[in-house]
Amino acid sequence: MEDISTNERTTGINKNQTRSTKKQTSEKERLSAKIAELEAKVAEYEKALNEANEKFLRLAAEFDNYRKRREKEYSDIIEYAGEEVLRNILPIMDDLERALNNINDDQSLREGLELIYRKFQKTLQNLGVEPIESVNKPFDPNLHHAIMTREEAGVAPDIVLEEYEKGYKFKNRVLRYAKVVVSK
């Protein structure tokens, strides 16, 4: 009898071990499934976080570019604020030059106009306005506006022969293009 009860006990123990092993396997499978599910969620959240981070970085860079562009525009507005006023004053300068070139007899009038002209020139120079030197210089479309071309003996092509209207720069910008005659 003892053998039977030992056998029964062994069989009972084996059944309990099998049940326990099945429970452990089932628990392991459940935990493995739960871990896989959580890992998938973590990967999904990491992907969403990376996308949000990239979006943030792009927006930050875009905003930085916008800020720099606005600062440049603002500084240009301040730096070149008087450009339109100066552009409207240049014809007066041209008229003074013409008057000086056409005075023949009256020396006191000539001296007075020359004084005004020099003061006017100095004031414009102090404001950053400079004349563009054109005659006998190579034609530059960034500085000159060709109103006519002419063949001239002994002169290379694309050389400014005459200046009909003087050009001016304001700081680093062309305020008015010089109107010139260019050699062919």
Give the C-alpha Rg. Answer: 45 Å
CATH superfamily of the largest domain: Head domain of nucleotide exchange factor GrpE
Strand content: 15-25%
Q: Give average pLDDT, whole number.
A: 86
Identify the quaternary structure here: single chain
User: Biggest sheet, in brief?
Assistant: 3 strands, antiparallel
Question: Would you give an account of this structure?
Answer:
The protein has 184 residues and is of the alpha+beta class. It folds into two domains: 1-79; 83-183, Nucleotide Exchange Factor Grpe, Chain A, domain 2. Helix content is 64%, strand content 17%. It contains three helices and six strands. It has helices at residues 2-79, 83-102, 107-126; strands at residues 129-132, 144-150, 160-165, 167-170, 173-176, 178-183. The chain has a three-stranded antiparallel sheet. A three-stranded mixed sheet has the order 2-6-3, with no helix packed on it. Strand 4 and strand 5 form a beta hairpin. Helix 2 packs antiparallel against helix 3. It is rod-shaped, with a radius of gyration of 45 Å. The termini are far apart. The model has no long low-confidence stretch (mean pLDDT 86).
